[in-house]
Amino acid sequence: MPIEFPANDKFHEECGVVAVYGHPEAANLVYLGLYALQHRGQESAGIATSDRGKMYVELGMGLVADIFTSQRIKKLPGNIAIGHNRYSTAGVSQIVNAQPCLINYAKGSMALAHNGNLVNADQIREALVDEGAIFQSSNDSEVIVHLIAHSHQELFVNRVIEALAGVQGAYSLALMTEHEVVVARDPHGFRPLCLGRLDGAYIVASESCVMDLIEAEYLREVEPGEVLLINEDGLQSFFPFHRQETRRCIFEHIYFARPDSLIFGEYTYSVRKRMGKALANQSPVEADIVVPVPDSGNLSALGYSEESGIPFEMALIRNHYVGRTFIEPQSPIRHFGVKVKLNAVKKLISGKRVIIIDDSIVRGTTSRKIVKMVRDAGAKEVHVRISSPPTLFPCFYGIDTPNRDELIASRHTLEETRNFITADSLEYLHLENMLNMMGEDSGKFCSACFDGQYPVDIDGRGHQPVQLQLFGSETPDV
Amino acid sequence: MPIEFPANDKFHEECGVVAVYGHPEAANLVYLGLYALQHRGQESAGIATSDRGKMYVELGMGLVADIFTSQRIKKLPGNIAIGHNRYSTAGVSQIVNAQPCLINYAKGSMALAHNGNLVNADQIREALVDEGAIFQSSNDSEVIVHLIAHSHQELFVNRVIEALAGVQGAYSLALMTEHEVVVARDPHGFRPLCLGRLDGAYIVASESCVMDLIEAEYLREVEPGEVLLINEDGLQSFFPFHRQETRRCIFEHIYFARPDSLIFGEYTYSVRKRMGKALANQSPVEADIVVPVPDSGNLSALGYSEESGIPFEMALIRNHYVGRTFIEPQSPIRHFGVKVKLNAVKKLISGKRVIIIDDSIVRGTTSRKIVKMVRDAGAKEVHVRISSPPTLFPCFYGIDTPNRDELIASRHTLEETRNFITADSLEYLHLENMLNMMGEDSGKFCSACFDGQYPVDIDGRGHQPVQLQLFGSETPDV
Amino acid sequence: MPIEFPANDKFHEECGVVAVYGHPEAANLVYLGLYALQHRGQESAGIATSDRGKMYVELGMGLVADIFTSQRIKKLPGNIAIGHNRYSTAGVSQIVNAQPCLINYAKGSMALAHNGNLVNADQIREALVDEGAIFQSSNDSEVIVHLIAHSHQELFVNRVIEALAGVQGAYSLALMTEHEVVVARDPHGFRPLCLGRLDGAYIVASESCVMDLIEAEYLREVEPGEVLLINEDGLQSFFPFHRQETRRCIFEHIYFARPDSLIFGEYTYSVRKRMGKALANQSPVEADIVVPVPDSGNLSALGYSEESGIPFEMALIRNHYVGRTFIEPQSPIRHFGVKVKLNAVKKLISGKRVIIIDDSIVRGTTSRKIVKMVRDAGAKEVHVRISSPPTLFPCFYGIDTPNRDELIASRHTLEETRNFITADSLEYLHLENMLNMMGEDSGKFCSACFDGQYPVDIDGRGHQPVQLQLFGSETPDV
Amino acid sequence: MPIEFPANDKFHEECGVVAVYGHPEAANLVYLGLYALQHRGQESAGIATSDRGKMYVELGMGLVADIFTSQRIKKLPGNIAIGHNRYSTAGVSQIVNAQPCLINYAKGSMALAHNGNLVNADQIREALVDEGAIFQSSNDSEVIVHLIAHSHQELFVNRVIEALAGVQGAYSLALMTEHEVVVARDPHGFRPLCLGRLDGAYIVASESCVMDLIEAEYLREVEPGEVLLINEDGLQSFFPFHRQETRRCIFEHIYFARPDSLIFGEYTYSVRKRMGKALANQSPVEADIVVPVPDSGNLSALGYSEESGIPFEMALIRNHYVGRTFIEPQSPIRHFGVKVKLNAVKKLISGKRVIIIDDSIVRGTTSRKIVKMVRDAGAKEVHVRISSPPTLFPCFYGIDTPNRDELIASRHTLEETRNFITADSLEYLHLENMLNMMGEDSGKFCSACFDGQYPVDIDGRGHQPVQLQLFGSETPDV
Hints:
Four copies of one chain form a homotetramer.
Chain A: E1 2-4, E2 12-13, E3 15-21, H1 26-36, E4 44-51, E5 54-61, H2 64-67, H3 70-74, E6 80-86, E7 101-105, E8 108-118, H4 121-130, H5 140-150, H6 156-165, E9 169-176, E10 181-185, E11 194-198, E12 201-205, H7 209-214, E13 217-221, E14 227-231, E15 234-238, E16 248-249, H8 250-256, E17 262-263, E18 266-267, H9 268-282, E19 289-292, H10 298-308, E20 316-318, E21 325-327, E22 342-344, H11 346-349, E23 353-358, H12 365-376, E24 381-386, E25 399-400, H13 408-411, H14 414-421, E26 425-428, H15 431-436, E27 445-446, H16 448-451
Parallel strand pairs in A: 16-27, 19-23, 23-24, 24-26
Antiparallel strand pairs in A: 1-21, 2-25, 3-6, 3-12, 4-5, 4-6, 7-8, 8-9, 9-10, 10-14, 11-12, 11-13, 14-15, 17-18, 20-22
Organism (chains A, B, C, D): Nitrospina gracilis (strain 3/211)
Function (chains A, B, C, D): Catalyzes the formation of phosphoribosylamine from phosphoribosylpyrophosphate (PRPP) and glutamine.
Active site (chains A, B, C, D): 15 (nucleophile)
């Protein structure tokens, strides 16, 4: 019987966004950007462009490289474009949820691509439907476009600002009209967003790896609470919202972002390695080798090894050709699970005391299989070290976490978890150690999934009066 | 170079709809119904179902049998279902236009499938966007769901009625909520819609051939201006709108509907044959054989032959395996056009005076190629007889007609057209003859595409005060 | 549950072949030819070409228009090409059986496309494997290429002749080397094959409809027992085999060939109509309408109607969108069978005495369903008339017939068959009437499937001494 | 314009083979085995099984997980199975070359799956075609099945031995008849092949990672020159050929085999790491970080780092979602090449002296791009170290190498190559150091691609008299 692989036992980011203003090959650049951001969402992807007052959109299910042929790219003329990768949340994998969503409203057309999650989407949605609005998807994005359409501001950028003034939660947004691009990042700055330049065009993307691929110059982060308007007059920056405390998602560094991306002012690669070092200092253990769970544990394992002096061995080997389904025999070999993806190198492990490093544990089932695989390969001891704290609380700002019931750490003690995964020892990086490691920025991260301290009231009461008087008064020096 | 076949040189219906209430295999029955209505639209198809208060939808591009696997049908639980086939209008072949459209609004969820075209959609859309509504497709259907969502009526059926009171044009609609089905046909009755019964369930469909396929009992037409509510209390009928003159689309009989369908009180088969007979009486010509353009001209040719006594020969043979694209050689054989679809049987044609019968001429290019093919096969004379009047005006009620500029008859005299298609003679069935042929119903048809007499003001000024006081006071005896 | 349609309840031709010599767009012309011959085989198709001493082949499963993109056609350079359509015999639908088969042997390369069936293939195969030959498919064609490879003749055409001298049965063959095309038709001439000319190039094809599509001039049939060599010296004709009695397959006229094809000296259309007339004379019955089973019964029904004076009505309507699979509901509507393909027009049938005309009955199950459908539509009487004799014996010359056990006529009396299909009366066209109808050619047809008189000893003892001395001595005047 | 990625700038293995005897889920186990061996060939894959005297085969183009659905696995009954993965050699990617090839010959049926390359295939092929054999593919495998079919030995295993006695070159073969499996490895043992056991069944596979995945017990290597017969009597081992010097392909360790595979008595992982250490000793350089080209350089970089004490950094990041094509913009960003696959982490590299480690250089173009990428990221110095010697000669034993003209090292001095790739220094591991590193086995490897010393005369003169008298006299103790 063919089995679908169990949902990867990892947390999931929900999206990646890209925008280009002012480049004759805008759609192609967005395509490349989405390609570089494929890790942020593999369910669906889309690109919208604007050409001479007309807008175009192409959407599809699957990977960017499969959806977009050169024929489809040709259907996307214009030098303004935005794009979106979406992650597949179980059960609602449908084309109606693909973005960018392109709509017509009183003032014309707009397209929107959104990374993040609104905390008060349900309340707003309720209020909007009370006034007669209709919703065709379960996306937060549809809430935002309704708010923009309802705004009484004249200028599009002001409509966006008025709309965003009413929402709470996480958003890194790219919007497009017939003639301009507007991007915005929520005041807490949960999700990353950066700005670059190529041949006179502006590029906006979730991660800096996009700039590297298209050889754009990386300019800077879009700031928390910043709204950028890019049009024929160039780029204008606004900070129309009450300033909030910065609360970057630490999980971007732990797992989501590409290691070669510069986000929140640091390369993810460096942060991961420091986490490994911090973990080595905090939870040392006598052992013979340090082994990463590839590829999520690679860099923290490297850091752990460097700090502890225990040799680093890539003793778990990935099969690079893992497909989406896989036909398991009826018997007697059952429950392949992680085996089709990973295999242990017996020679390295046999008779050794092994430290396995990963970035997180979700349900514990994968860790349990890995520990068993390592033990079957002859390990004398198996110590598991996790480069982040136990995940105890759900995320409301754009990460797809399982129910608390499914999060092993939220229902079990450390000892119970250790027992479940059958490790000889198990340690997580402590929250304070992780944050301290971030230096002077240590207070600027959201750690709600670890400690339940939600920076935005998850009941969603509004508290962000908009400062429309500021419009246009600031010009950024980029 | 591969060429896409030129848009079939025919007029196009825009949709087929099916609804089922109260059958455990509702989705499967709708699937079968769409299968039987495939001729009404081949661009996209969709099915929505309702199960225990939850709604499901599956949409896809292409043919019903290709879109729906048994796996997809299984994702559509429940004993209420509606479905839709959509025709591909050039250039906007996109998944966002696929129906049924499923939306959430203040009072819950609804799904809608629509056949027809509203005359005042643009005005309503404008008014709605002025109030802040947003539109994600170019479908009239989105206008209707907005109106329903905006209605202040409590009962869903009354919301639908209030919404429809504001629209003008053609609609045969199937709507579904969590617990009921509502169907409606516009007061002029432009598009067909019929009601049937199977195992205690109600079936609604564009044409009666659906009832034949699923072995449902055909009950009756849904009347012009009738609204049906089907729920756990059974079926209720309402006539809430001001009565209008019936204006059935005569093109349903001429070309769109299946010959085995009973619509507007007659089998299309019989009407087509009568048209052929009327044509024979009106425009006789001495000839040796009567040849239909398959399959659109089959039945009128049969009628022409019977009436004239000139033998019927199927001397144009269809290739049953015509695909969507086809690779033409560079040279020296060019312009295959109709040749890959049709071939003439030389033996039958050589040396003969041939009457070619078709149902209509659109641009004239196909007719010209057919006349050439018949002449190349050795015909001594080629007389073309068309079983409907010249199409001079565009349709605003659900048929995709080319621009007037492209309608050969609207820019050319009969003689010029004859000359263009290189026939020895050309005659169309006269409008009065066609209508007379319909007997006592002759006044109940829309003939706007022939005479420009549009039954609904195409400027779209409203004139249908709703009679809400009538609600529930009538119960149909079905 | 999705059901595959039962094997169409018809007999099946096994193949169509096309060859082109001397045209710069050889592959494209072969593609068009296969397109026109799609009715002769839908399982797989292939094209091989020859360019500057190198050969190319592209094969695929499915329909010609789906297999060949312009990209694949571009991979087939050269001005020599042959092509093949193959019918899907149940169970062995595999790419290894697709043709043309392209092989390398002592003298170079050759490609072969074969329509027909050899009677002594098994004996030859046995002899060849005894000498060490290996076989990779179950095709007779592989037997022929082995024989050609084993021949000690120098010239390719002579190798082919020597090979064919040893085989018995039906073959219409197209072969190609780096520099020439050789075509051959067996001495009995079971399968059709014709010759045409386009822009100086020679075209060979199973049916003349290929010439019509590509606008080639139809020259003549390839004669029974004729071998044609086409190379830079032009076309040479040989008759190297002992002359045999001509035994054309009458089923080509009854069912397989396209009505617009000229084969065996007659248009299939005319023959079918004459069969209907003969049937009317032989087995008249008082009735109100004559109804064909579309499309196989169309022309004989037309003939029957003309001869009997009973009106012709196309009262069984085909669904043009029948796909390969179709999802049947679990209950209570079962056994759709023919219903998804055909529907009866009730109005025409109700209360009438109906004559249903088809070309043949295989298992009887389809006829039974059609009779039931017509009766359900209200027919007062249902008379079935079949325009060919009862099929009692299997074909060994290229038609896929069911086992004798499955042929209803071979195990049941006429009365039992009538009873099974629930008709009021049933008559087949008598063999002598059918043959008489062919006029002076009446003795030149194979009627083995009706009378068991197999023109070629089906035990396969050889009896065709080759006349190699004749080589090259005859030049045809084409 | 969409561009196909340039052929990966690596050498390519041609195949992986798997065989199972005596397991009720034989096809499923072979499927899993092919899944684990996917790195050995991605063009096509196939599985053949044997059940009650009948053989089945399913072939397809593409990846194992895409070709084989559970439906296709179900078409492969029986408890004997063999399977094959094939690498795509440019230009001949065709289904006719897919394996296993299944043939019928005088003694019944056989299927064959072959990894390797015969040196005298052309001569044998020539001799065979002179005797009338025909060839349908360009595979060496077809040569072998012909030889087996021509053998006059009675027992299948002896036919195989007689056939192999005539061939020279590299082969790791799995053969199957209706009732047995025969596997063979050439006397030099160029390609790996190992034996395992699961639930009483025997498993044979190219690499031991297959045993790990299906949880079979690894028994031992199939020895160079060994022939195994596995049937209902169990397993028998033969050494029928003259003993030859063992000549394992060192490139299996350098690049082809999975690091978790035990081949030639060692884990590839360990060998690669030792190569890195040897390279560090041989060619040290003062630098700040050691960076692997992922994943081919990972382990040698780790070894280099350990030995040199220079920190290991994974500063080149792979995009895990690289597809087969990719749409490049027209301008001004051109020549993405390696950029879509790799990106440099600037932070790590900027201002550093960087050692880049890879396993080999083929054309030099990829290395050049990587050096440029590292330099653009700010490296102060870029030193390239290659963990194998310069590849100067083509391989005739199963590896797809470019022409000598394309091998940069064969036409350029070390200094010229260094200059071309723009590195500050470039060093290869010297051949003697590499071989020394293999310890007492150092003489047992083929190093022809480095030194041109071909262990088998590449002119293909035979020199392996078969020792048929030995048949059956040896029984291996496994």
